[in-house]
């Protein structure tokens, strides 16, 4: 199985600041990498797929980059509604696997 | 508007069985592969199972293989997950999700509902 490792586990950020989240795969997933946002008591919300393609209605402040085994999610200017847990997921091969998540909290 | 509504979760003893349901609306289930994903209390997301759009094939996580069965009734626009021989490690919220890529399950996922809670405890 491909192991997805996210860092940091928790990121403390002030509103308006830039947040950078990392996701590493134990082997190459080429460009088959997606990101989700999850708030307490809610289902995950799709943010990006194919590393950098924003899903419907996702604001432009969310961007993704990377390839192979190293990926980054950047939130350019954090808004109050962005405080949540973020997960990466690979869909290069079975089984689908998720990272352990990064919690973005208010500094 | 696309909606997925999960149900069937319950508190149950180890070794028990449940049938989870996912009622889809706003789209034809027969057009999409579907997944189940679970989340243990305070934990991350774990992919559980995938069912092809026509129900002719399925994939499972090793942790549930032989105990869980994913199937669908496209005429009722409903996806199911039969969960048997439950253990405490199966405790969590179970979400259903749409398969959004053309790669037959190797995909990013579209979630839509709040999930259904399964609690396995003696």
Task: For the structure shown, list the relevant keywords.
heterodimer; A: 107 residues; mainly beta; seven-stranded mixed sheet; four-stranded antiparallel sheet; globular; B: 122 residues; 11 strands
Binned strand content of chain A: over 45%
Structural class of chain B: mainly beta
- The residue ranges of chain A in which pLDDT falls below 50 over 5 or more consecutive positions are none
Query: What order do the SSEs of chain B take from the amino end to the carboxyl end, as H and E?
Result: EEEEEEEEEEE
- The first-to-last residue Cα distance of chain A is 35 Å
| Helix percent band of chain A | under 10%
Radius of gyration of chain A: 13 Å
Largest interface: A-B, 25 and 25 residues
Whole-Å distance between the termini of chain B? 40 Å
Radius of gyration of chain B: 13 Å
- Total strand count of chain A, please? 11
Question: Would you write up a description of this structure?
Answer:
The complex is a heterodimer of chains A (107) and B (122). Chain A is mainly β and 107 residues long. In chain A, 0% of the residues lie in helices and 50% in strands. Chain A has strands spanning 4-7, 10-13, 19-25, 33-38, 45-49, 53-54, 62-67, 70-75, 84-90, 97-98, 102-106. In chain A, strand 4 (33-38) and strand 5 form a beta hairpin. Chain A is globular. Chain A starts with a strand and ends with a strand. Chain B is an all-beta fold and 122 residues long. In chain B, the strands form 2 sheets. In chain B, strands 2, 4, 5, 6, 9, 10 and 11 form a 7-stranded mixed β-sheet that branches. A 4-stranded antiparallel β-sheet of chain B has the order 1-3-8-7, with no helix packed on it. In chain B, strand 5 and strand 6 form a beta hairpin. Chain B is globular, with a radius of gyration of 13 Å. The termini of chain B are far apart. The model of chain B has no long low-confidence stretch (mean pLDDT 97). Chains A and B meet through strand 4, strand 5 and strand 10 of A and strand 5 and strand 10 of B.
């Amino acid at each position: 199985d491909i192991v997805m490792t996210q860092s940091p586990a928790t990121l403390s950020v002030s509103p308006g600041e830039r947040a950078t989240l990392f996701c590493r795969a134990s082997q190459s997933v080429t460009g088959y990498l997606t990101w989700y946002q999850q708030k307490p008591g809610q289902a995950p919300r799709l943010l990006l797929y194919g590393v950098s393609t924003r899903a419907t209605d996702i604001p432009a402040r969310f961007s993704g980059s990377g390839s192979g085994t190293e990926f980054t999610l950047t939130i350019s200017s954090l808004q109050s509604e962005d405080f949540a847990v973020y997960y990466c997921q690979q869909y290069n091969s079975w089984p689908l696997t998720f990272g352990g998540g990064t919690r973005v909290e208010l500094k | 508007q696309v909606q997925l509504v999960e149900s069937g979760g319950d508190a149950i003893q180890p070794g028990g069985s449940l049938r989870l349901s996912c009622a889809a609306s706003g789209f034809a289930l027969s057009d999409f592969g579907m997944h189940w994903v679970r989340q243990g209390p305070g934990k991350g997301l774990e992919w559980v199972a995938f069912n092809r759009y026509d129900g002719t094939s399925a994939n499972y996580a090793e942790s549930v293989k032989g105990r869980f069965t994913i199937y669908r009734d496209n005429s009722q626009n409903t996806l199911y997950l039969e969960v048997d021989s439950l253990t405490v490690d199966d405790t969590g919220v179970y979400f259903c999700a749409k398969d959004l890529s053309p790669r037959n399950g190797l995909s990013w996922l579209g979630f839509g509902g709040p999930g259904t809670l399964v609690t396995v405890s003696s």
